User: Which sequence fits this backbone?
């Protein structure tokens, strides 16, 4: 296994990496600088879309473009920047992290800027744009993904220092039976983004911890991947055969002294040789046009 820089970005808050299997490139955001980047790993070329607000989460639309959480708005966003409002979150100060389920819904939560306990929520936006509050009493909504059979949703509300699991009804999008999947209270750093591989392993980015943890489907820690900067925010599998793990990082998670000394903070990293593959990213349902 080895880790290298995939893109010298120096993002203030790199997040929400999504691999595009059709175009073979990585989409990710820099929330604070209000940018969505596209990285072509083979050439290292990066193209950038400036957006009108903090893009806390992106996923791909079935017919091209993004579903994006910008501020509190769920928006259909063309790659050219044209946008159309889909729905608006009510709890929290801005949308933070999200993914599409296998039926094309966008599941995405919010955060409270002052980290007031319970002031945010996790939402589901269905393919018709209807908004459902899935989890109330959230503080800092973060990583989520589904198991291989799409009947378990893994979810992180960062201040809980846990990865929780819900039963997930893929037909209705309803959740039930919340329980602790992995307790990270004694881990270095706090749980942030996550992705599930094709064997059901759960890869969790530990913000300020400088590591990615892999938990097997039974919740046991079975791999620790060190990343060369502490501000590890999220990860996703990509590359032509989905065997590379792309990792976003943030300068904002470092102290001023750390920022001065850390030449790779905020860059995107790629981890090779993990011996496991990811799954193609789900897309938001095709009855919303790219705008
Ligand atoms: Ca995050």
Assistant:
């Amino acid at each position: 296994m080895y880790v290298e820089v995939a893109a010298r970005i120096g993002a203030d808050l790199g997040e929400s990496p999504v691999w595009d299997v059709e175009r073979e490139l990585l989409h990710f955001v820099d929330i604070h600088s209000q940018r969505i980047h596209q990285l072509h790993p083979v050439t290292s070329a990066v193209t950038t879309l400036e957006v009108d607000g903090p893009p806390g989460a992106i996923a791909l639309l079935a017919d091209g473009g993004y579903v994006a959480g910008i501020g509190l708005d769920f928006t259909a966003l063309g790659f050219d920047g044209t946008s159309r409002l889909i729905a608006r979150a009510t709890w929290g100060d801005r949308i933070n992290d999200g993914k599409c389920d296998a039926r094309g819904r966008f599941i995405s939560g919010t955060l409270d800027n002052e980290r007031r306990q319970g002031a945010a929520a996790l939402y589901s936006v269905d393919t018709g744009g209807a908004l459902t509050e899935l989890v109330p009493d959230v503080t800092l909504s973060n990583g989520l993904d589904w198991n291989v059979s799409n009947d378990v949703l893994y979810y992180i509300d960062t201040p809980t220092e846990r990865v929780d699991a819900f039963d997930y009804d893929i037909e209705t999008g309803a959740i039930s039976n919340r329980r602790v999947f992995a307790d990270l209270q004694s881990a270095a750093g706090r749980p942030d983004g996550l992705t599930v591989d094709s064997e059901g392993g759960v890869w969790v980015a530990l913000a300020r911890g400088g590591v990615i943890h892999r938990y097997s489907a039974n919740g046991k820690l079975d791999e620790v991947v060190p990343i060369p900067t502490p501000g590890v925010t999220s990860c996703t599998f990509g590359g032509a055969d989905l065997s590379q793990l792309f990792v976003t990082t943030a300068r904002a998670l470092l102290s001023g002294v750390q920022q001065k000394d850390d030449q790779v903070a905020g860059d995107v990293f790629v981890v090779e040789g993990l011996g496991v593959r990811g799954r193609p990213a789900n897309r938001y349902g095709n009855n919303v046009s790219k705008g």
